[in-house]
């Protein structure tokens, strides 16, 4: 299981939790696992989120591996120019 830290605006969709666990081996599985366990997160994830794994923001590639001890943060997608 991978622990995923959520920003405060998402906690309402995850029963008030700031950290949740999903079974995943890569970033894509983290996102699909979150939607499966917490369907209310689907619209936010589909709109676009940023994922940081062990301090590195994953810009592209849902195949970026995660390990059970990885530090994973789901963040608002960074936009701008």
Automatic annotation (TrEMBL):
It comes from the Bacteria. Pfam families: ThiS. SUPFAM superfamilies: MoaD/ThiS (SSF54285). Transmembrane segments: none annotated. CDD domains: Ubl_MoaD_like. Signal peptide: none annotated. InterPro entries: Beta-grasp_dom_sf, Mopterin_synth/thiamin_S_b, ThiS/MoaD-like. This is MoaD/ThiS family protein. It comes from Neptunicoccus cionae.
């Amino acid at each position: 299981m991978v622990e995923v830290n959520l920003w405060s605006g998402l906690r309402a969709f995850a029963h008030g939790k700031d950290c949740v666990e999903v079974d995943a081996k890569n970033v894509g599985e983290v996102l699909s696992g979150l939607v499966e366990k917490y369907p209310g997160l689907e619209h936010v994830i589909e709109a676009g989120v940023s994922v940081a794994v062990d301090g590195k923001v994953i810009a592209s590639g849902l195949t970026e591996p995660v390990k059970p001890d990885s530090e994973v943060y789901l963040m608002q997608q960074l936009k701008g120019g």
